[in-house]
Design a protein that fits this description.
Strand order of the largest sheet: 3-4-2-5-1-6-7
Structural class: alpha/beta
Bound molecules: adenosine-5'-triphosphate, magnesium ion
CATH topology: Rossmann fold
Order of helices and strands: HHEHEHHEEHHEHEHEHH
CATH class: Alpha Beta
Distance between the termini: 17 Å
Strand content: 15-25%
């Protein structure tokens, strides 16, 4: 198994999660709710990052979970047609039936989603990885599927491939209402993030904001001992809660 896959893990919010971790996701949920206007249908959101491994899939799952906890009807879609990993993270056997096959389904009403009772949201795995992901992601069928889902769910959360690595994500950004850009504190520099932001904006994406991930409280010197610094910690999406007691990757 390649080294970069050995330590990969999904950390879904649970009863043992730190207060800061849970609260940061609640702040993210609230900010998203404030930023997206009521359109009479559900909101389609995309979670992405500049480069691989910044935490897109973890953020997607936790955002879906946190919205579901608020009583929202949520579907999480694995739109990473290069190397979708969500089904593995969510312990669902590899399915040929997934987004890629749905895009070939002429009857949109036949689209099937999995209900993840444990987490309270629905899920569409990536399905068999196609040979032409950019074309598939940018297809009219993809736009129709997302539009269809937006009339059946309050939130459609799309986990994606990294913006600076492949064209798929900026192409997909044209079909969504808002983009959340995950920035891993130590994995990227300013120029890399700016390139991703510029690429998304060139595609006319609505970049809602940035989630600062793998945030190291100790490294930044942010001290939680007073209210003001604690507020900042949450405000900037610094949900490295488990990073305090687990290995940062
Ligand atoms: N806040 C965090 N603190 C510590 N580790 C984290 C954090 N967020 C994600 N990780 C770890 O980073 C690794 C990559 O996370 P994840 O798979 O969510 O990234 P990704 O951006 O979806 O990657 P890819 O681009 O390969 O799809 C995982 O092992 C995950 O556990
Ligand atoms: Mg991922």
């Amino acid at each position: 198994m390649p080294a970069n896959k050995i330590n990969r893990q999904l950390n879904v919010i649970n009863e043992n999660s730190s207060f800061g971790y849970v609260e940061a996701y609640k702040a993210l949920r609230a900010n998203i709710q404030y930023l997206l206007p009521d359109t009479g249908r559900g909101h389609v959101l995309m979670v992405t990052s500049s480069i691989p491994g910044e935490g897109k899939s973890n953020v997607s799952v936790n955002l879906a979970y946190t919205l579901a906890q608020d009583g929202k009807n949520v579907v999480l879609v694995d739109c990473d047609l290069r190397k979708g990993t969500l089904h593995r993270y969510l312990n669902i056997p590899a399915l040929t039936n997934g987004l890629s096959s749905m895009l070939e389904e002429p009857d949109i009403e036949k689209i099937k989603v999995l209900l993840l009772q444990k987490y309270g949201f629905c899920f569409i795995p990536c399905g068999a990885l196609p040979s032409n992901p950019s074309e598939i992601i940018g297809s009219e069928a993809m736009r129709n599927v997302l539009s269809h889902l937006s009339y059946n769910y309050d939130y459609v959360i799309c986990d994606t491939a990294p913006v600076n690595a492949v064209a798929d994500t900026s192409i997909l950004s044209r079909f969504v209402d808002g983009v959340v850009l995950v920035v891993s504190q130590n994995d990227v520099n300013r120029n890399t993030v700016l390139l991703a932001k510029e690429t998304l904006e060139n595609a006319n994406a609505n970049v809602l904001g940035v989630v600062l991930n793998k945030y190291d409280v100790k490294q930044t010197g942010t001290d939680n001992s007073n209210y003001y610094s604690y507020y900042n910690y949450n405000y900037y999406g610094g949900y490295g809660g488990y990073g305090e007691d687990q290995n940062k990757q």
